[in-house]
Amino acid sequence: MYAEEKRAESRYELSSKARLRQGKVRYPDAIVLDLSQGGCLIDHGHFHLTLGTITVKLPGFEAFTGLVRWIEGQTAGVWFDRPLHPAIVDHITGLFPRERSMARANTMASHACLQGRPRSVLL
């Protein structure tokens, strides 16, 4: 996501397994690292994602569709086609909290990426 879009909504750290789909290709073992009404940060592991349309499915929820706007290493930023209702965001983040030490490392890496520095510098 572009920096100004990323800051338009509050982002909430979480850790949830997710299934991804791009076209006919399915990725069963991704992790959603943060979530906002407008999008999410995903760790897609070793799978080869591309920019463009994607479906993100969290356990117990309907799939969210959106666009992969950027890819950096094993993480990618997704911008949802339709914003999530704030109550849905609250419910999801309450179900899948993330450990603070891991959250801090990923937040620092995300900020480095936005500033044009490689993530590996901070990790």
From TrEMBL:
InterPro entries hit by this protein: PilZ_domain
Pfam families, per database record: PilZ (PF07238)
A GO molecular function annotation here is: cyclic-di-GMP binding
The record places domain PilZ at 5-86
Q: What is this protein called?
A: PilZ domain-containing protein
The top of its lineage is: Bacteria, Pseudomonadati, Pseudomonadota, Alphaproteobacteria, Sphingomonadales
